[in-house]
Every structure is written in structure tokens, then in C-alpha cells.
């Protein structure tokens, strides 16, 4: 626990809050007799705390952006993949308490479990030290220069951009198809190919089918923009 506190750069006045934030529901279910609670309620609260802190930051630091852009950036900042990456950075999976089945199934590396636990920790810090402490943690882990660059990349809709590019000429048929999967079920990578009029023009991978399609569209768009347009 002290090791994790050092990684969070926060010392709990009520360590039981951090302990509960690490309790997956599978672990709590196996220890009902001991009245151990899961982190699900903390996760619920943490989602709201995270949303508020990021919204306040974006509202303050991007005064010229319209509501739509602010919403998209916030969604990218607090998305499951973003939280998963932060959890990996602090090796959060090493500290989780899981049930036997979840442990055997690779739960310590499961994207959804790590992302949910990260939200639970934000809530635990909020309950222990207030919004100032929670905001400080969220800023340290999520809102930095590097993370904003990642967000700007994620919020680009390459599929729409590719669709608009190919529609400059009439009669274009753009399709996406999954051509492969890699890795275990709890950390699967999808490989998608995008075709223009039946010909493959780009390929990409991601931890979700949507992410793989965006990566394929990005690759295709980069190639098409380097080529001279045909009349």
C-alpha cells in the first residue's frame, strides 16, 4: 500500500479507502462473510470526480473552444483506454485484489478492470483529501503536455476524413473488414483493413474494432494524400 501511495504521490489519512478501491467485485463476492466491499461504488463516484476536474481544466485552459470540441476532448481524456494506460504506468494491476477466477483469467491486465480501479482511486483520494487532492492526482496522472497530445490524436475522426477525401470523386465504395486478431481475450488486438472499390488501401490495429478502423483509415489517408489525384 505504501508503495502505491508513493506512485500516487499521496498519503491516505484513511488507508481503508485505498484498500477498498483495490477490491474487485470478484474478490468481494468471495469474502462476503468478512463484509468486504467492492470498489464499484467508488468507481461510480470517481467517474464524476474525473469528469468534473477535466471539464474545469478544459473550460479554463481552452477559452476559445466551443462546447462540442470541449466534450470530445474530455471524452478522449477520460476514456477507458486512457485510464488503462495510466493504470499500467503505475503498475496498478499488481495491487488489485481479485477473485480466484478473475485472477486465473488474466484480470490484472484486463483493460476494463484497470480503468475502473483507476476511477475508484480518484474517488478514494477525493473522499480522503477533498477535491483539491483529487484534482492534483488527476492532473499529475492525466492532464499533462504528453497526455494532451495523445488526446488531440485520439479525437481526430480519420474515418470521416477518409470518407470525405474519397467522395471528391463520384462512385467510390469504402469498406472496412477485420482481417485478424492477436493476443489473449483480456488483451486482444484487432487488425482491420480498409478497401476502396475492393482494393486494400490501408491497415491498422487497436484494442477495439473502432480503434482498429480509425488506425486503418489514418494509414490509408496518409497514403492517399501523398498521391496525385486522378481526374
Q: What does it look like?
A:
With 231 residues, the protein is mainly alpha-helical. The protein folds into 2 domains: 2-154, Ribonuclease III domain (Ribonuclease iii, N-terminal Endonuclease Domain, Chain A); 158-226, Double Stranded RNA Binding Domain, CATH 3.30.160.20. It is built from 11 helices and 3 strands. Strands 1-2-3 form a 3-stranded antiparallel β-sheet, covered by helices on one side. Helix 4 crosses helix 5 (67-77). The radius of gyration is 21 Å and the shape is globular.
List descriptors.
231 residues; Ribonuclease iii, N-terminal Endonuclease Domain, Chain A; Double Stranded RNA Binding Domain; three-stranded antiparallel β-sheet; 11 helices; 11% strand
Put the structure in a nutshell.
The chain is mainly alpha-helical. The protein has eleven helices and three strands; from the N terminus they run H-H-H-H-H-H-H-H-H-H-E-E-E-H.
Amino acid at each position: 500500500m505504501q508503495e502505491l501511495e508513493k506512485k500516487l504521490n499521496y498519503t491516505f489519512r484513511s488507508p481503508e479507502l485505498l484498500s477498498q478501491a483495490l477490491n474487485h467485485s470478484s474478490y468481494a463476492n468471495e469474502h462476503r462473510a468478512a463484509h468486504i466491499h467492492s470498489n464499484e461504488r467508488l468507481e461510480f463516484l470517481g467517474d464524476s470526480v474525473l469528469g468534473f476536474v477535466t471539464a474545469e481544466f478544459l473550460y479554463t485552459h481552452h477559452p476559445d473552444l466551443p462546447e462540442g470540441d470541449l466534450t470530445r476532448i474530455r471524452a478522449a481524456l477520460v476514456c477507458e483506454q486512457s485510464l488503462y494506460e495510466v493504470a499500467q504506468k503505475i503498475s496498478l494491476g499488481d495491487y488489485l485484489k481479485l477473485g480466484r477466477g478473475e485472477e486465473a483469467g488474466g484480470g490484472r491486465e484486463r483493460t476494463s478492470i484497470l480503468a475502473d480501479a483507476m476511477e475508484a482511486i480518484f474517488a478514494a483520494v477525493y473522499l480522503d483529501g477533498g477535491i483539491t487532492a483529487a484534482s492534483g492526482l488527476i492532473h499529475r496522472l492525466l492532464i499533462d503536455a504528453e497526455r494532451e497530445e495523445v488526446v488531440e490524436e485520439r479525437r481526430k475522426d480519420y474515418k470521416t476524413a477518409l470518407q470525405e477525401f474519397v467522395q471528391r470523386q463520384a462512385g467510390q465504395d469504402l469498406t472496412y473488414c477485420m482481417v485478424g486478431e492477436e493476443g489473449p481475450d483480456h488483451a486482444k488486438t484487432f487488425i482491420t483493413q480498409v478497401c476502396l472499390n475492393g482494393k486494400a488501401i490501408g491497415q491498422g490495429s487497436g484494442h477495439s474494432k473502432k480503434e482498429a478502423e480509425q488506425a486503418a483509415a489514418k494509414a490509408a489517408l496518409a497514403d492517399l494524400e501523398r498521391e496525385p489525384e486522378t481526374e
